[in-house]
Amino acid sequence: MEPLELLEPDPIADLAREAFQEEFQGGCYSGRFHEDNWEEEFEKIPLFMKKAPSEIDPMKNPDLACLQSIIFDDERSPEEQAKMYKNEGNDYFKEKDYKKAVTSYTEGLKRKCADPDLNAVLHTNRAAAQYYMGNFRSALNDAMAARKRKPWHLKAIVRGALCHLELKNYTEAVNWCDDGLQIDAKEKILLEVRAKADKLKRTEQRDMRKAKLKEKKEQNENEALLQAIKARNVRLVFEPASEEEESASAGLCKLLDGLNLQNPYGAKPSMDDQGRLSWPVLFLYPEYAQSDFIAAFHEDSRFIDHLVEMFDELPPWDLERKYYADNLEVYFEDEEREELYQVPPKSTLRQVLQHPRCFVKDLTPSFLVCVESSVFSRRYFGARNVQ
């Protein structure tokens, strides 16, 4: 064997080899994954994304934008596009992102495909998303739309029954359940909803009957009360809406019904089993801008008896200790004539209310109370016509 021939060193080749080695000794590939953030990097790749971004910016996510344009290509048939949006909505629904699911199902319906079954599914799925968002009326509308396209679509019937239950349409809920149970007599949700809706419907009907009976009873009591007031010739201040549209009796019934709203004290006249009346009465003390309210002043009670009880202890605002029963004067005012009429202490409320110049406003008699012959009384009543 001939000995190997030694090659002479080539300076140019050595320089090329060194340059090649230096290239691989430089920094690592800039796009490589790092141990600390490899999951975040994977999430940026469309194939490995667990959740799509809310808005796709072609500049920031060109790969994803490209895939989306391919999936929802306008050249695809309406049915294919609708299915794509349905699947997208289902993915959002699984993630419990119901708002985006609604948007996807809506886009699917906008494709107006000719497949009634697919459209029924899109409406039903959107109804489910709306239901979990608490939009029960919108969910019900979708369930009804689904049934128009597919009358015996069980899922749409279930969803509609649930919506009727939430909206307290108990009769409709029962009817929808009955429709669904004709398809599947063992459907658990429908059986549960029907039982609950039927129970609530019966409770609602019972409450309505009670309310009507109560209303009728109150109406009869008010009419009897008005008759008793008229029989006593008590003059009430009341202006009906018009003489042609409403009688005074009907107007007074309305006033009685709404008195708790009109009267800040929340009381109105009442009648006992013997036909005797009690009135809510207001006592005003102009000297100190104070007042007392008696919720039930019996018509046969005397004013002096109430004054004795009211001023058994001196009120905290009476710093001069001068307000006691035997030292007080009581008046009622005739606003029309601007006159004051003194009330005899031993007279009953019924006797005073039957006075020809006593008018009861808002079904609450009111009286002024002052210290007899006091400086304030002379000054306050001196400028008025006292009878």
From TrEMBL:
InterPro entries per the UniProt record, alphabetical: Csn1/TTC4_wheel, TPR-like_helical_dom_sf, TPR_rpt
Taxonomic superkingdom: Eukaryota
GO BP, sorted A to Z: protein folding
Annotated SMART domains: TPR (SM00028)
PANTHER family according to UniProt: TETRATRICOPEPTIDE REPEAT PROTEIN 4 (PTHR46035)
Entry keywords, A to Z: Coiled coil, Repeat, TPR repeat
Ranges in a coiled coil: 183-228
One GO CC term on file: cytosol
Record's protein name: Tetratricopeptide repeat protein 4
UniProt cross-references to SUPFAM superfamilies, sorted A to Z: TPR-like
Cns1/TTC4 wheel domain residues: 272-372
Transmembrane segments: none
GO terms, molecular function: Hsp70 protein binding; Hsp90 protein binding
UniProt source species: Phyllostomus discolor
Homology family: Belongs to the TTC4 family.
TPR repeat spans: 82-115
